[in-house]
Amino acid sequence: MPAASASRTRMGRAEADAAPNLTIAPATPEGRRDLVSLPKAHLHLHFTGAMRPQTLIDLAREQSVRLPPHLLDIDPLTVPADSRGWFRFQRSYDSARQLVRSESAMRRIVREAAEDDAAEGSVRLEMQVDPTSYAPWVGGITPALEIVCDEAKSATRDTGVEVAIIVAASRIRHPLDARTLARLAARYAGDGAGEVVGFGLSNDERMGTTSAFSAAFRIAARAGLASLPHGGELLGPDSVREVITALKPARLGHGVRTVEDPELLDRLIEARIAFEVCPTSNVHLGVYHDFSAVPLPEFISRGATVALGADDPLLFRSRLLDQYARAREVFDFSDATLANLAKQSIDASLASESSKRKWHGRIEAWASSRP
């Protein structure tokens, strides 16, 4: 790196000590069951956003990059809701992604994500990645995806968490790029650990035309890949309708704004479309002022299938276990309700039926155990 670059200097010790440990389990209230031992599936986790804060600092030190303050000091609850939003999030994500420049860094992210989910009681992780972002450093999009898939298989063996991959196109890129990714995803399609199980569409949902990506999703569908696009977070019910019509999802990434149209919500529930609800993400992005405003109880009361997710723990400073713990604290959910949420996450996953039956049995044992 050029010594004259103002943004690339050796990091100080204070920065290196700034990384929080996001896998520390919250205290279990008296008379309640330990959430770590509750089997659950994690279905909404982005590749770069899964990075541990300490890994971010290590990569920056290796490359002599000074991390911007918005990556070192991220606490959404101290930021006014009208100062949060997509731009603040995206510049942080881009800064972190620029540090992932080697096969070893990519493997480390997958491995540590699986380890962190194992520490939180997850039994299934479906990680979303756009290999385009990392292709320049490892020889192309094909090697980039192969690295992620290979490490997912290895991490599955070592952690006991089934790690599968979702290839996601970006709304801010041309729809033809999405077709290229869909063809790549189809080559690695399967239903086992380390294989590609779905095709997604992420990034700012206010950008692009949803229907322009339908050809890519048809390519993926012919290969047996599930449609797993984002929608209904930054925009409301009209956006959800477009996604449903054009992309025919099996699950909807976020989808929380669907509650603004009860008839539409009932339609999606009847169609058995699951929702990947990421409450802390919604708060960070200013969609809701605080956790209590997230319409999770409404989804549950209307009979929706919900899988809680962490989205981007690196930036939101909250992993999957914390979503369950906060839901218990804020909404006073019973252990039975939390067990049902865990079951729904298993049901919404793309795991085999035999794995689902096994995990359901473990959830039932948890629910029937003594607090």
UniProtKB/TrEMBL annotation:
Source species of the chain: Schaalia hyovaginalis
GO molecular function: deaminase activity; hydrolase activity, acting on carbon-nitrogen (but not peptide) bonds, in cyclic amidines; metal ion binding
Region of interest called Disordered, as start-end residue ranges on this chain: 1-28
Residue ranges of every copy of the Adenosine deaminase domain listed in the record: 39-365
UniProt-listed InterPro entries: A/AMP_deam_AS, A_deaminase_dom, Ado/ade_deaminase, Metal_Hydrolase
Listed EC numbers: 3.5.4.4
Key words, A-Z: Hydrolase, Metal-binding, Zinc
Stored Pfam families: A_deaminase
Enzyme class: hydrolase
Annotated NCBIfam families: aden_deam, PRK09358.1-5
Name this polypeptide is given: Adenosine deaminase
